[in-house]
Design goal:
The chain has ten helices and five strands. It is of the alpha+beta class. Strand 3 (343-348) and strand 4 form a beta hairpin. The longest helix is centred in the middle third of the chain and has 69 residues, at 110-178.
Length: 364
């Protein structure tokens, strides 16, 4: 019991001594042992690393998940160590809406078919986005978070302990200055040697930990490369998906733009840059039998004969020179000298007019 009381009294005395030393330093009434310049620089670098790591992490999380409510929900699930419920992202939601509306309008119609194709591509982009988020969380965000919650907390703990050892050292220096009696000076000198030794040992421990921040920078550099590679893959996939979709939509008749052709004919054309994309990336199928169909139309033009053709999609004539079509009907088509290669002359009974070849399937 007496031992515990003495221990508590000693701890209280040590705490009071540190508090007095700290207060006197703040008011300029006591000298303060300064850390060497190298250690100070290491402390500043570690603090900057911590602050910028937090900032980069936060902005990366905003980039990957712009919705703050969803980020908060994911944070709560993570703290509760529960699995985050799977939900569709914005691209997948848009794709689902397009597919459902396309089915409503009819897959056999041009608009419905185009909506379905766009919806499928949007869902593919949504899947690529999900892969980017998962990859970035593992290879980029996790190492940053591990530094903040692991290494830096250890540095912070040892740095606080170094501050305590410095206060003990300076308090011992103050007591030595105030000692007048020989016995008191001898005790103060012994205390000073002990506190100096403890301070030096703690400074060395702190220095070694702070120098380890260089390894942290090297590790984060590798993580940054992984993050850039994940983004490169994601954007390359998205570009390839959209190029493939554009090709598919290009197989639909150009009559969608013919109505506005007069208003845009004098404007500058828009071109898509050619970007090399890895052949291993998944791509959207551009359809089957397109080369065979092109060959059949070329043969028809060269023979100047006529063929039966099945209409693939509904088509509304844009002018009196064109023939309106209904999906699945069979008409007779022929080539007319001088006609645009994207069009043929179609006949249905007494009706006759130009028809777009992309709406047709030649029959044997």
């Amino acid at each position: 019991m007496d031992f515990n009381v003495k221990r508590l009294a000693a701890d209280a005395g040590t705490f009071l001594s540190r508090a007095v030393q700290f207060t006197e330093e703040k008011f300029g009434q006591a000298e303060k042992t300064e850390l060497d310049a190298h250690l100070e620089n290491l402390l500043v670098r570690a603090e900057n690393t911590k602050q910028w790591t937090e900032r980069i992490m936060k902005q990366t999380e905003v980039l990957l998940q712009p919705n703050p409510n969803v980020r908060l929900e994911e944070f709560v699930y993570e703290k509760l160590e529960k699995k985050v419920p799977t939900r569709m992202n914005n691209h997948e939601l848009l794709g689902q809406s397009m597919i459902e509306s396309g089915n409503e309008f009819g897959p056999g119609t041009a608009y419905g078919n185009a909506l379905i194709k766009c919806g499928e591509t949007e869902k593919q982009i949504g899947g690529a986005e999900r892969e980017l988020i998962q990859s970035s969380a593992i290879s980029f965000l996790a190492p940053f978070r591990n530094f903040l919650e692991g290494d830096f907390k250890t540095i912070l703990k040892e740095r606080k302990l170094l501050q305590v050892k410095r206060l003990d050292l300076d308090a011992a220096k103050t007591r030595l200055k105030k000692a007048r009696m020989t016995d008191a000076r001898a005790a103060a000198e012994q205390e000073l040697r002990m506190t100096q030794s403890e301070f030096d040992r703690q400074a060395e421990i702190t220095r070694l930990l702070l120098e380890g921040v260089s390894s942290t920078h090297a590790h984060h550099l590798r993580c940054l490369n992984d993050f850039v590679e994940a983004q490169t893959t994601y954007y390359a996939q998205c570009y390839q998906y959209m190029v493939d979709l554009q090709k598919q939509l290009g197989s639909f008749p150009s009559s969608f733009s013919n109505n506005n052709q007069s208003s845009v004919s004098g404007g500058a054309s828009i071109s898509v840059p050619t970007i090399p994309v890895s052949a291993s990336l998944p791509s959207v199928s551009a359809g089957h039998g397109s080369s065979t169909a092109s060959g059949g139309f070329n043969e028809l033009r060269s023979s100047n004969g006529s063929r039966k053709a099945r209409v693939l999609y509904d088509y509304d004539a844009a002018s009196s020179s064109e023939l309106s079509l209904l999906a699945d009907e069979v008409i007779t088509v022929s080539s007319v000298p001088g006609m645009d290669t994207d069009w043929l002359m179609g006949e249905r009974g007494n009706q006759k007019g130009k028809v777009p070849i992309t709406y047709l399937e030649l029959l044997n």
